[in-house]
Amino acid sequence: MNTQVHPGMPDFDLDDARLEILLRADAARDAYIEDAGFTMRVMSSLPLPQHRRSYSWLGPALGGLAVAGVACFSPMTAELLAPFKAVLSGHWLPLQSLVVFVPLVALTYGAAWFAATDSV
Predict the structure, then answer these.
(1) Contact present, 71 and 81 (Cβ < 8 Å)
(2) Does 75 map to a domain?
């Protein structure tokens, strides 16, 4: 910073408080500059905002389909679905099945929610 003071030159060394006062005073004034309708013409000639479609849900959906496809042909599918068949028969769901399936459902729901609310 140049600390030399030249004779006849105004002092531009403003502290924060004085600068804040000057900025607030400037903001309080009517800052509109008459432009003979130029701003209105420019704003009216701008295109309307386009609503873009978000395809962020597609990744989790395809992943879910892939997992479902693999599960259909897996030999473990019968063992994984056996507790739910028992529930349909009127039996209680074993705690071991809940420990496995509740986190999986929560993670799947969380991934779907995140994909649906993810802004592009």
Answers:
(1) no
(2) yes
d(CA 13, CA 3): 10
Looking at 1-120, which runs of residues are DSSP E strands?
Answer: none
Q: Tell me if residue 108 falls in helix, strand or coil.
A: helix
Structural domain including 113 reads 58-117
Terminal C-alpha separation, the chain: 44
Distance, in Å, from the CA atom of 79 to the CA atom of 17, rounded to the nearest integer, reads 73
Query: Any idea which residue has 């459902």 for tokens?
Result: 105
Range scoring the smallest mean pLDDT among 54-58, 64-68, 104-108, 115-119:
115-119
Which residue is it, tokens 């929560």? 106
Which of the pair, 37 or 104, is modelled with greater confidence?
37
Question: Would 64 be classed as within a structural domain?
Answer: yes
Residue 22 domain-assigned (yes or no):
no
Q: Which of 99, 67, 93, 63 is nearest to 81 (CA)?
A: 93
Measure the CA angle with vertex 97, ends 96 and 100; round to 5°.
90
Tokens encoding 50: 């386009």
